[in-house]
Amino acid sequence: MLSELLSKSSVQGWVKKVEAKLNFEATPSWHPIIAVDESVVKCGGRPVYVWVAVDACTRRPVWFGVSVTRTTENALRFLRRLRRRCLGDPVILTDRGPWYREAVLRAGFHNHVHQTFGLRSSVERFFGYLKDRTRVFYNNINPKKTLFEPIVDFLELFMHWYIEWR
């Protein structure tokens, strides 16, 4: 219990300060090896695909995306956004999903390796943490407005927690 009463304006000021510190816009940085994968999470009872890129050396997430389907075009959209966050030409590790073959090259990455185990396990570990946290909601995040808004908000906060506080 607080010893002093707080005004609504002081709480709003505190919230604005916290939101200012939670900057989810990443600046481009160097990542030598990036593991990329996708997984299914339910949002409002509908399956949506969460795409994640993890720096395989540091095991830190680099970028994420959300889509309704798992196609080459959705993989390309995700990888193009990832490309803007990478300096140099990192090695991209993927599983053998057919949607990655063309998308990786069209996104501007020149080093693409198919890998099932090894360094690519860092992205699988990230999905393990994500599934553990969403299991509390029975792997179903309920949307209040649009389909993607709650899952994107949840992933932004989850990424911040994973990188900063875990």
Describe this structure in words.
There is one protein chain. The protein is an alpha/beta fold. It has a single domain (29-165), classed as Nucleotidyltransferase, domain 5 (2-Layer Sandwich). Helices cover 40% and strands 25% of the residues. It has 5 helices and 8 strands, in the order H-E-E-E-E-H-E-E-H-E-H-E-H. The chain has helices at 8-21, 72-83, 98-106, 121-134, 148-165; strands spanning 29-30, 33-43, 46-55, 61-67, 86-87, 91-94, 111-114, 140-141. Strands 2, 3, 4, 6, 7 and 8 form a 6-stranded mixed β-sheet that branches. Helix 3 links the parallel strand 6 and strand 7. The longest helix has 18 residues, at 148-165. The radius of gyration is 18 Å and the shape is globular. The model has no long low-confidence stretch (mean pLDDT 81).
